[in-house]
Amino acid sequence: MEFLKQFLIFSGLNEEEFKQIERIAMKRTYQPRMFVFMEGEEREAVFFIKSGLVKTYKIDEAGNEQVISLLQSGDMFPHVGFFDRSPYPATAEAVQETELIVIRIADFDDLLMKYPQMTIKVMEIMGKKIIDLQERIQGFISKDVQHRLTHALMKLAAEHGVRKGKGVYINLPITNQDFANMVGTSRETINRTLNEMKKKNLLSADRSGILIYDAEWLNGSS
Questions:
Q1: Are 74 and 6 in contact (CB under 8 A)?
Q2: 65 within 8 A of 142, measured Cβ to Cβ
Q3: Cα–Cα 20 to 30 A to 14, which of 6, 78, 179, 210?
Q4: What's this model's pTM, rounded to 2 decimal places?
Q5: Measured between alpha carbons, how far is 190 from 184 in angstroms, rounded to an integer?
Q6: How many distinct structural domains can be found in the chain?
Q7: pLDDT of residue 118
Q8: Could you say which of 119, 140, 161 is where a domain stops?
Q9: DSSP one-letter string for 167-192
């Protein structure tokens, strides 16, 4: 339960209240490429990532994967639908071996009814996600691929980055295809754009992550 205390929605609860959460929380482990849930399935639970990496995405009419987010330890999901019975809005898939803390929707609803301060915090989280989505849509409309990729790198650096001197290291095993799915282009275009950035000594990448040499460049170019 010490792990769950770091989440915004649980801040302010006392030890007795946390004991109630402990009674309804479960632990599940997922291997890489296992589905946590699929888009359109009946909503079952709220998930809190203890370790690992989860990718959420939608499939468009042409069958293309559109990555919505990459989530790691300390994240909760899904971020919408807490106040209705709508199905899961996207698919969630484990990228690495992942350990989740799971609270069933019915039990989570009871928590929201019992502790109104949690409901307010959930609404704050949903509001931030809506703003993120609006910014992403605006980027798709008004920016070229390089700007969209730079914005994606900036967001990943903010959420998952570790400072390395003047730079920042994005500690995620993200593929070029994942980037293509995030910014709405082809893998070939992402390959070309990343190679151009590497030639300019802006970044380097391997299977475990991406190193941005100068964080100021990243913030100034997006």
A1: yes
A2: no
A3: 78
A4: 0.70
A5: 10
A6: 2
A7: 76
A8: 140
A9: EEEE-----HHHHHHHHTS-HHHHHH
